[in-house]
Write a structure and sequence with these properties.
Layout: H1 2-49, E1 59-63, E2 68-73, E3 79-84, E4 89-93, E5 100-102, E6 110-115, E7 123-129, E8 132-139, E9 144-147, E10 152-157, E11 163-169, E12 176-182, E13 189-194, E14 199-203, E15 209-214, E16 224-228, E17 234-238, E18 243-248, E19 253-258, E20 266-271, E21 276-283, E22 289-291, E23 297-303, E24 310-316, E25 322-326, E26 334-340, E27 343-348, E28 353-358
Protein name: Dipeptidylpeptidase IV N-terminal domain-containing protein
InterPro entries: 6-blade_b-propeller_TolB-like (IPR011042)
Keywords: Membrane, Transmembrane, Transmembrane helix
Length: about 350
């Protein structure tokens, strides 16, 4: 009996010892878990307190030293074509390197503007000469200029980059017509008789419609009209306000500027389908605006109120929300804006040079 009792006592002691070990192990495990949990909480706090990296501020840079006329992105967006003040054609890389001249026949006048088509290497140069404005069509295949008749006033390229639409004024200055022809003026077709020789023309991206508005504004109203380039039917699109300019951003939408009480005109968006105009809350001219290729975002150079240059902003054409894009302490006065990738190129009218704002 005594042996049995001792055996039972030994088993009881063994069980108690195992229970104590289990308690100790459990306590150690709980302590380890508590330490790990504390470390995780500390790490999360540190992570939450760590500020995200600050995005690099946009930088402005001058591209080349030429006084630039009518710059345009190269087809592959790897460079920019432009004329200089002497009428010579150049291509320059986006970083300002690789300046290359493209030899052309000389023009007698001073080039003021180049009308570039959507594609191809032909163009129309508008120059100032002793007899007034001169328009020369350049044939890139034959490498020659053809001077267009002085009767051709305002003109614009068709999307096919072969034909032009223009206002023809009769020699006696009594009649004017809207016409279409090849780039060199041959093969013309009369579309419609029109009332004024100073009508400006903006052909839509699909080539079906053109906007017409006068460059000489009489009174407080300058209407914007649309003309069907197939039928010649003319309709009034904007019938109020002193409208100054218009540019297409898609086949059914265009921007137009209207004289305002401020020093710079007000910019609006017009939808040809809904027939609705939307005030974009922008006071600037259309040569200080560019729209991305999707037609969703406007990039605009806005003159500062103190006259000390331009600030740059963007506006979403769906939400009409504006955001600051770039502001400089330099006196930058931008025109001829071009969006290439995420970089904004433009001419600074202060020095006539190309500049770029890039992120």
């Amino acid at each position: 009996m005594r042996a049995v009792s001792e055996s039972a006592a030994d088993r009881l002691n063994l069980i108690n010892m195992m229970n104590r070990k289990f308690v100790i192990i459990a306590a150690i495990g709980a302590l380890i878990l508590a330490v790990i949990g504390g470390l995780l909480v500390w790490a999360m706090k540190v992570k939450n307190q760590t500020k995200p990296p600050i995005a690099a501020a946009p930088q402005i840079k001058k591209i080349g030293n030429d006084r630039v006329v009518s710059p345009i992105p190269a087809i592959n967006n790897g460079g920019i074509w432009y004329f200089n003040a002497e009428g010579r054609l150049f291509r320059i890389n986006l970083d300002g390197e690789g300046l290359t001249e493209y030899p052309l026949p000389l023009l007698s006048g001073t080039i003021r503007k180049i009308l570039w088509p959507q594609a191809g290497e032909d163009f129309i140069a508008i120059s100032s000469g002793s007899t007034g404005e001169i328009k020369d069509y350049y044939n890139s295949q034959k490498k020659v200029y053809t001077t267009l008749p002085a009767n051709i006033k305002s003109l614009d390229w068709m999307p096919d980059s072969r034909r032009i639409v223009y206002i023809w004024q009769s020699a006696d200055n009594q009649h004017q017509q809207l016409a279409m022809a090849n780039g060199d003026g041959t093969g013309f077709v009369i579309i419609k008789d029109v009332f004024w020789p100073d009508l400006q023309i903006k052909v839509s991206p699909d080539g079906k419609t053109a906007l017409l508005y006068r460059s000489i504004v009489d009174g407080n109203v300058n209407k914007i009209y649309s003309v069907n380039l197939e039928t010649g039917e003319i309709l009034t699109v904007i019938d109020s306000g002193k409208n100054l300019e218009a540019i297409w951003i898609s086949a059914n939408r265009f921007l137009f500027s209207q004289s305002a009480i401020t020093a710079y005109p007000r910019v609006y968006l017009f939808d040809m389908i809904s027939k609705q105009a939307t005030d974009l809350d922008l006071n600037t001219s259309l040569d200080k605006i560019v729209v991305d290729k999707e037609g969703k975002t406007v990039y605009a150079a806005i003159p500062k109120k103190d006259g000390g240059g331009d600030d740059f902003l963007t506006e979403d054409l769906l939400t009409f929300r504006q955001n600051d894009f770039f502001s400089s302490d330099q006196q930058i006065f931008a025109k001829n804006l071009m969006l290439i990738g995420s970089s904004l190129f433009f001419i600074n009218t202060g020095d006539g040079n190309l500049h770029v704002v890039s992120k």
